[in-house]
Amino acid sequence: MVTRTELEGKALNDGYQRLCLNHEGYRSWKKQDLARAARAGTFDGIEIAEPHWPEYPGPASPAFGCFCDACRQAFRRMFPGEPALPDIVHNDSPLSPGRNPTLWEKYLRFRQASLTAFLDDLVNGAGGLRQTCPGVQVGTWTLALAEQDGVRRVRADSGEDAGEVAATVRPDLHCLQTHWPD
Ligand SMILES: [Zn+2]
User: Fold this and answer.
1) How far is CA 27 from CA 48, 54, 99, 122, in A?
2) Closest Cα partner for 66 from 80, 51, 79, 81?
3) Which of 12, 22, 88, 101 has its CA 20 to 30 A from that of 43?
4) Domain boundaries, the chain
């Protein structure tokens, strides 16, 4: 991923290696890795834990993302009329969330759609778990947040809509994960 910190020209050395949900190479590797793990362990079920976009509390977070080339291209496919991703670093930019709330709203919709599509691909897509591991139960996760306006915040900060994931991916089980601010 390309996060806010990389957009600022710095390195985010927080111990995580973040891989973009829109990167085709990552998706295809992840599908192969899930199938390999499920078979090697002869597991009855497999869960895909913590597939969040980073992160709470929103665009001020050093890890907020993603602004990589794969995301730029995917955003342009979803919104052909928008030439660029938002600019979360320069508040006076015409592409900043404050000055272009319409673009920002589209970007948040894009992140949510991307995350749901990522999980749908891992489970139901070509080479996904339903195909490679028939009979293996599949669990998905999203964050829950008890604070004020928590459902909207999780959609905006992490790109997760539990109802949309459940309805689209149709997992055998869905876990609402305790969020650290709670
Ligand atoms: Zn990306």
Assistant:
1) 13, 18, 34, 7
2) 51
3) 22
4) 4-178
Residue 69 alpha carbon to ligand 1 centre in Å: 6
Give residue 72 CA to ligand 1 midpoint distance, Å. 7
Q: What pLDDT score was predicted for residue 83?
A: 84
Residue 55 Cα, ligand 1 centroid: separation in angstroms? 14
Distance CA 109, CA 155 (A): 9
pLDDT digits 0-9 by tens, 83-110: 899 999 999 999 999 999 999 999 999 9
- Residue 167 φ then ψ, to 5°: -70, -35
Residues of the chain with pLDDT under 50: none
Between the CA of 44 and the centroid of ligand 1 the distance, in Å, is 32
| Residue the block writes with tokens 């490679």 | 132
For ligand 1, the distance from its centroid to the CA atom of residue 174, given in whole angstroms, is 25
Cα–Cα distance, 170 to 45 (Å, whole number): 14
CATH of 4-178, one of 3.30.470.10, 3.30.420.40, 3.20.20.80, 3.30.450.20: 3.20.20.80
